[in-house]
Write a structure and sequence with these properties.
By secondary structure, the protein is an alpha+beta fold. The chain has helices at residues 3-53, 60-84, 101-123, 141-163, 202-213, and strands at 126-127, 168-175, 189-200, 224-231, 239-250. 52% of the residues lie in helices and 16% in strands.
Length: 260
Amino acid sequence: MDLGAYWQENKRFVVSVGAGALLFLIGFAVENSLFQGRVNAAQREIQGFQNQLKKEPYTAEDKTAAEAENAALRASADKLAEAARFKPRPEFVPDPAKGPAANHYLRTLSRVREELSQRASRAGVAVDSKLGMPELSPTVEGEVLRYLEALDLVESVADLAVRARAQRVDKIQVRLDPGRGTQKGVGPIERTRVQMAISGSSLAIERVLAWTQRPSPGGRVLTIDQLETSLAKGKTDEVRLDVTFVIARVREPETAPENG
């Protein structure tokens, strides 16, 4: 090939290619001088992290301290759960050796109605005879247990109202936790709500509330979810208390698996 002739015919092309190559080399050199330091620093940082990952991040003392803190937190959580959990009286807990829970529910409901009616009648207190229990007696054991707990609470509050010389205990409603039987479930705390209206003098209402929160030795604190007081319609000496109690069932926390 005649290079002289090729140069004469293509010198503009050759000059353009050469200029482009020169600009590329200059740009590469400038970029390398500007960013190579950052690249090197980033590589050193990555290498440092990799070296740290090869080492144990925590000491034996750190593990011991974490385990002690975890144990203390679990103890506090258990104490709070125990305080929140509703504890039914023995007579409201079915004994499997004495037959089905549904039979125990019927016997207990009949006994409570008769005994509470007598006490209330002697004190001149009107108590809703249905006691918030369903028209059709529950047969599923889980529901039976929950209605027995609600019956326990209703009798306890009605008995306090009788002792305080209230006038009426009515509009009693028991609502099981709506999460039962659903895909979402009830969560860590299952709540059965017991609503009722208690009417009487302001002193009687004050006593009922005080006794539910500051019971006598051996008694139970009854957890209140909502309450509202108002004057009875057309009466200036009668107060009405609309109150909702909560029966809490606290689910036991799941134990996290230990790493082997």
